[in-house]
Hints:
heterodimer; A: globular; B: mainly alpha; Globin-like
Amino acid sequence: MAKFTAKPDELAKIDFRPPRTGWMDTPVEIKEHMFCHAAKPKELETVGFPNAHEWRPNDEDWKLPENWERTILEGMKDLLGKYRSFRLFMDICVRCGACADKCHFYIGTGDPKNMPVLRAELMRSVYRGNFTLAGKILRKIAGARDLTVNVLKEWWYYFYQCTECRRCSVFCPYGIDQAEITMMGRELTNLLGLNIGWIAGPVAACYMKGNHLGLEPHTITSSMEFFVDDIETITGIRVNPTFNRKGAEILFVTPSGDLFANPGTYTAMGYLMLFHELGLDYTWSTYASEGGNFGFFTTNEMAKRLNSKIYAEAKRLGVKWILGGECGHMWRIIHQYMDTWNGPADFLEAPVSPITGTRFDNAKATRMVHIAEFTADLIRHGKLKLDPSRNDHLKVTFHDSCNTSRGMGLLEEPRYIIKNACNHFYEMPEDTIREKTFCCGSGTGLNASENMELRLRGGFPRANAVKHVNEHHGVNMLANVCAIDRAALTTSMDYWVPGVSVCGVHELVGNVLVMKGEKERTQDLRLEPLPGKEGNE
Amino acid sequence: MSRDVRDLLSRKKSALLERWFDIVLETYPSESSGFLKNKKRQFANPVGYTISQGLEDLLDELLQEREMDIEKVSSVLDSIIRIRAVQDVTPSQALAFVFRLKKVLREEGGTAPSEEIEALESRIDAIALISFDLFMKCREKIYDLKANELRNMTFRLLQKAKLVCEIPGE
């Protein structure tokens, strides 16, 4: 909602039309509920980020360091030299407009600067003005402009209104990856200490403690005790997870959000039950206790530093390979960056499922397998006894997370698992799933509460498709394989499609898994009565 | 409302709708109104589709001979106002479209007797009152969501620190 400023006598003559000026001449207005709080200096200093200082996004004065323009332009020069893709993306756009209406933030806000082409143009204009001959001579005619405080604020405002979901790049005939432009934008603002608390806090915590929430080892293990108790209540079976166990065959890494935030916790319970039932020789780590990587939303170097602990811990524990839980950006990083950053992990073996013997050649380089691949393979080989009727009260649809679908091509495995774990599965419309999936609206560290309106606007295209299957098929459960989705979509559904709950795929598995020696189930993993089974106690 | 007036307005329904929809679109930046106007794309343009569909359903209800079905009016309005309540408009701008239908009706229904138009206008007033309630409900929901997120995030931590506890079941 915009700030209410009109006085009663002004209301009558209010002009509802927004000003009609070109984008370059429309100065940015930092609006409430659309941005996240600034990072605290302490958080940035913890990881050695430069120019940490107190500032507030809606203050006029951002207390920028001296010569900040030079810092940005030198930073830009550095990035242009380092990444050929960045220079290419600055040069080649023909402004065909194919991307313009593909962004969930543009669709939900109608703000032209949320069109991917224009968001990129915010930076291209400065690139042209400072790094191209035509731009230096012809200035505005060539689409060039100077770097001013207002331009910097505009960058900050809009680069933190992009979730790097890459839906626009699916439609770009040149394959320009807007996510990479946003990454560069965020790297540059980071040089001036202009990060957000919701990102910088988790980064500092992860650097110091091993996970975004800053959980220490005893907190992790005792949190897991809660799950173990609940599983015993539900199934009568006490599972025994191990931590930091040297010599285990497999190291399991998952986002820490699933250890504390509902409904992710139920997914974590699903993992525990599955591994117990298989008798898997695996261990959790309280050090590599974070699959997610908010460093990825600051700088490439920071992401690499945070990621390095996964291999380091695998080496320390002497495991053979790594299994990873349900997460979004974690998998883009593992799939596309980890091997280059911190590999080769030649101390690990190519992953082989100890249950089915399947060799995961797709993970030969990284030595890390997605749990959906692992579980789908188990089901395919008939290694799990499942009773999908326990999920009969659920009508399920699947939300493809941006990073797993567009970043690693994981499309079929989660669906295969869901179809085996549920009798009622309905796809959302074709233009809103798989590679063309809509973002939850809260990725890349934008899932704070203070920017709720931004999140709800950006989440509307996804919610609109859920609403469609809710109205037509009675869908009441939105499954996904991402910790941020589980948190963000819960809020989004609560606003846009009340009555639709959110779950991880392995919560569905945990519910239908028939475990050896289990008592008759009367409750689901949420400790709610299982419909149709209440009277059997 | 007499059958003549209803027929007249029903005949002009598409013109009425177009003008009414344009009024809503005026509150968006001009660069985006072209995109939003493409109301056939339900999933590619959910804002334009939902609003245009909602306006049409409202108009249908308004021009009924019988009393308006308030439940239906509320549900249709909700789909529009839920969007407007999170967008970059003031409350007055968000709901102005309801009042501005009066002007559209007077202009398009020029030959209709004014008491007939007045009857329609009091129906529009009823729609406006429901809109206020819905708008407030949406705004309150947004603050609820923020509070709930914080509570969910901290509950387990408080539980861990033994600052809160749940009474165990039987």
